[in-house]
Amino acid sequence: MAETIDTALEDLAAEFELLGDWEERYRYVIELGRELAPLTDAERSEANKVRGCASQVWLVTEPQADGAIIFRGDSDAHIVRGLIAVLLRLFSGRPAADIARFDTKAAFDTLGLSGALSTQRSNGLASMAARIARDAQALAA
For residue 45, what is the DSSP state? Predict the structure, then answer.
């Protein structure tokens, strides 16, 4: 059976727990971001840009024939690239309906991101999550 969003969240939470303090977790998040495949220049378009982020952020949404959605993303900031990688671990490849009804805020609380990020980064993360949820809702409808 395919991994669910909840399973992906549990796995990420366990990885974060092993790392202990937030300095180590930030390094891990940045490392996750380094593993993202880069977007093409064409994909770094206004249409793919995420509003509400202090950094430049682009998200590409690719609906699949089976109802799942593949997300790809990039940013000009290392930590934000890492946060994109966290979101992609949770949501990419999952059914649109599952993404649309998932409580992202609770997931950020579970991972401890809500308290660990600056207000600006928290707002950017919320903007990225809202964009993913909007795209999923549109495709699930």
Answer: S
> For 87-137, how does the pLDDT look when each residue is reduced to its tens digit (9 = 90+)?
999 999 999 999 998 999 899 999 988 788 888 999 999 999 999 999 999
Reply yes or no on whether 42 is catalytic: no
Query: Which of these is catalytic: 5, 53, 85, 125?
Result: 53
Enumerate the domain spans of the chain.
5-140
pTM > 0.90: yes
Which candidate, 77, 140, 69, 129, places its Cα nearest to that of 104? 129
Buried b / exposed e across 60-97, counting CB within 10 Å, b at 16+? bbeeeeeebbebbbbbebebbbbbbbbbbbbbbbbbbe
Domain 5-140 sits in CATH 3.40.50.300: no
